[in-house]
Amino acid sequence: MAQRETWTSRAGFIFAAVGSAVGLGNIWSFPFQTASNGGAAFLVVYLLAVFLIGFPTMLIEFTIGRRSKQNAVSAFAELGYGDWTFAGAIGVFASFITLAFYSVVGGWVISYIVGSVTGAYLGDAGAYFGSVSSGLVAVGAHAVFIAVTIGIVAFGVADGIERATKFMIPAILVLLVGLAAWASTLPGAGAGYSYYLSPDFSVIASNFADIVPAAMGQAFFTLSLGFGVMIAYASYLGRDDSLPGDSAIIVVLNTIVALLAGFAVFPILAATSGVGDASGGAGTAFIALAGAFGQLPAGQIIGLVFFVVLLFAALSSSISLLEAPTSYVVDSQGMERRTVAIGIGAVAFVLGIAPAYGYVGLFNDLVFNVLLPVAVLFIALFVGWVANREAVDELGRGSSIGEGATTIWLWWVRIVVPIAVIVTLYLGVTSFYT
Ligand code: PHE
Ligand code: NA
């Protein structure tokens, strides 16, 4: 077998993983999930989900990937007893389904870049969203987005990916801080903050069955967990990196970007359509931000820069979504990388025509409420109960965490993560039908 590529540096891996994590999930999905699920009540559950379940789950994917040095499916054959490759296959399938609708939302971003140039959204941000978010325009933009994604993936792992993220993350942070600062001056900003930040615990209690699956799904989605993506990325990782250290950096950075997006969107909503107004549905963040650019001095230019940066964030995520199924097929069938990336991308494009005609929510629910919890359940059971001990000990390699911490993590993965995910799944699937 040919020598496997590795990241040229630790930073290269972190950039790629952060590139995968930080994306539309932070700026598009997080504000709208928060607005649709009671504001701060959702935020509290979401943060618990990220740190108590997401962080240890990222460590599961990293240990599987680095220990096996295999793609997200074969990894399960390498480390365990019996055939658990189905666990990886669920994740790869989730990546593929997600790519189909992610690319549609990525297409919206492209339409907002065009709208920044023409000024088309400056007058009526809501109407503009309506005109680009579904139908032929949406299909066309989705085609462009997926074509660019295919182009990047077809040319190899390390090259394309390592570069783009380096300037994207600082740029996104600066832009969001600037927008949040401006939004703080809007009339009504205070009411926006209190909706976003001061939790009403009775809302958590009464909406538990909706909030928990939404928050867990958002946590997995935003951290790129349950897709096999982090398994695939970690498989190219050298042995002397600290997995807990890298994971902490990724989780914290990703959380900061999402929180900042909320700090921009919620005061804007309060000042425009109403405190925590989620009637814009999947368009909530786009409409709020584009509306803000319509009022800002030099808003058209700021909007252009913002949506270009968001496009980079979306692309560094979508390439990881295409990478997971591509590297699996390349490894297992020995086919040429370029052909595989084009083939899978083309099928995802066709599948994406449905969300481009208004079914983003359906795809979103399928992934959040069903596929991701199921995938995470199996990878947790795998590492917790099935994989050999070397796989578990991979956690501590290259890091200063001791035997004790590894044991705590192992029991957390054995018991807490599966229970949390089963509860989520139960609530999520039942809410699907009601
Ligand atoms: N984490 C990405 C986001 O928040 C979405 C994603 C999931 C990307 C899985 C790749 C893999 O936008
Ligand atoms: Na994210």
Give an overview in words:
This protein is mainly alpha-helical. The protein has a single domain, classed as Amino acid/polyamine transporter I (Up-down Bundle). The chain has 19 helices and no strands. The longest helix has about 35 residues, at about 300-335. The model has no long low-confidence stretch (mean pLDDT about 95). Sodium ion binds next to helix 2. It comes from Halarchaeum grantii. Its main location: membrane. InterPro entries: Na/ntran_symport, SNS_sf, YocR/YhdH-like.
Tell me about the biggest sheet?
none
Question: What is the averaged pLDDT score?
Answer: 93
Strand content: under 5%
Distance between the termini: 51 Å
> Which CATH first-tier class would you pick?
Mainly Alpha
Q: Can you tell me the residue ranges where pLDDT is under 50 for at least 5 consecutive residues?
A: none
Helices, by number, come to 19
Keywords summarizing the entry:
434 residues, binds phenylalanine, mainly alpha, globular, Amino acid/polyamine transporter I, binds sodium ion
List the helices and strands and how they pair.
Layout: H1 10-21, H2 24-36, H3 40-68, H4 74-79, H5 85-118, H6 125-133, H7 136-154, H8 158-183, H9 189-197, H10 201-206, H11 208-222, H12 229-234, H13 243-271, H14 284-295, H15 299-333, H16 337-351, H17 353-386, H18 389-393, H19 403-432
Helix pairs in contact: 1-8, 1-13, 1-15, 2-11, 2-13, 3-11, 3-13, 3-17, 3-19, 5-6, 5-7, 5-15, 5-16, 5-17, 6-14, 7-15, 7-16, 8-13, 8-15, 9-13, 11-17, 11-19, 13-14, 14-15, 15-16, 17-19
Bound molecules: phenylalanine (PHE) and sodium ion.
Residues 20-21, 23-26, 98, 221-222, 224, 227, 229, 317, 320-321 line the site of phenylalanine.
